[in-house]
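User: My collaborator sent over this chain with a note saying "see what the structure looks like." That's all I know about it. Can you take a look?
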Amino acid sequence: MVATRFRGCIVRCDVPRDDVARLLPAGIHVGRAPRVARGRHPLIFIFGEHDGSALLFASLSLPTGVRFYEMVIAVPYVHATGNTDPAVYLPRVFTTEPVITWSGNAHYGYSKRMVPIERLGSSYVVSDEAGMLLAHAVVEPAGAWQAAATSPLAAFPAALGAMPVLGAREGGSIVRSHFEWTFDRSWVRRVHASMSIDAPLGRGIERGTHRAVDTASVQVWDLGWRLSWPEPQLGSAS
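Assistant: Without extra context I'll predict from the sequence alone. Here is the result:
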């Protein structure tokens, strides 16, 4: 199990439901998301910096000193075949750390890719190995910092973090894990954000700019992020 402290943004963009359906592999299906217009579905972007990384074994916490940037593209309110419980699927993750990339692909099926990621003022920029722009986010603060443990602003990320996370390993098996976010020491504030996909990133993730939903887009500071070990999804081939 891996644990980090995260500083960054969790933003929601509502996109065509048909595009979201194209993102999903066999065995994972788009569900019904609450408070979304007909024909639309949430697409979540999580981007920022992980620090304070540690490996957890039973009661031991072994600091690694690893610090890295990451941008996660996530589809919430999906479900695996034979299970109607809402879950989150990760069609693409960009990261700057090689071991995290390898483990995310081999164990979790997260479709991770190691590329340069930079924070430039209020922007986060993701490039490919040749320096070509893949995606970028522009973020503007829209309120004061609040203690996440007592703030209503934490309701959306808390609901997202409570869902199991599904990944598709090479070969097609579906595994599930949990982000296990904790907000006891963290801060949160509302943001305005714009997400730009600057190159095709895969089936259903085409070029385009998406305006974030202001009521479900926040910046977090010192979010506890503990990634559980993956386990086979019930009904999936191991």
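A starting point for your reply to your collaborator: The first helix runs from residue 17 to 23.
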